Amino acid sequence: MLGCSRLLMRHAVLLFALAASQAVPAEELTLRDDKIAQTPQGREQLKYLVNCALPADVTVIASAGEQRYALPGAMGLAPAWATRPLTPSEQRRVSACMLARTNLFGVPVQISMRSDAADATKSLEADAGERRDYPFFEAGFFGNLFQEQPEGYVCTGDAPSSRMRHLRSLLRVCSLPITNAPGASYVSRCGFVMVGACRDHAFVQNGVDYSADVLNVYLPASK
């Protein structure tokens, strides 16, 4: 799970890396420029970026020295990234996926990630069992991390009186405000801009309409 302190770095180098890759048999893509893979922080970024963007039948190979890293795809939110740069819409959807998977504590947390967009991929559909097991609407995440000035936003979902306690117990606090700083109500604990409740549809930010690119995160119910 991405730690938020590691997430909002310059992503420009990543934008072109996979577009310059070459496909080889067995759906493997090899990075032409492995610069991003030379540090643990860079490999963590790349791992989640590949996982969000590419489908499960594609693996990206990156090298650091003599070490070879296989990074599997999963969500398939931008499968064409293997052959060309991301479009603005793909940038926003991949960014939303990375933001949704950010964790202040850098530990794995099981989540259900869903989209209300009409053209959402099947990886963002939840069956009856998943909806039953993950009924608590934590938040919606959106933004664009590929811009020169990365942007990350969060709107809040269910808001019972136990919300803060429940999210803390699950180690999911990126949709909770910073409470010990000026303007805290507008900034989350992971540095995302808080835009209010998701039901208010405040998805137009800085002149960009993110409404088709929001990813909603659901969690297990509180006990």
What does this structure look like?
This protein has two domains: 2-82, no CATH class; 88-219, no CATH class. The strands form four sheets. A five-stranded mixed sheet has the order 7-13-8-9-10. Strands 2-3-4-5 form a four-stranded mixed sheet. It contains five helices and 13 strands. The protein has helices spanning 12-17, 40-53, 88-100, 128-133, 163-169; strands at 2-3, 22-24, 28-30, 59-64, 67-72, 102-103, 112-114, 136-144, 151-156, 193-197, 204-205, 208-209, 215-219. With 223 residues, the protein is an alpha/beta fold. α2 (40-53) packs across α3. Helices cover 21% and strands 24% of the residues.
What brief labels describe this structure?
2 domains; single chain; alpha/beta; 24% strand
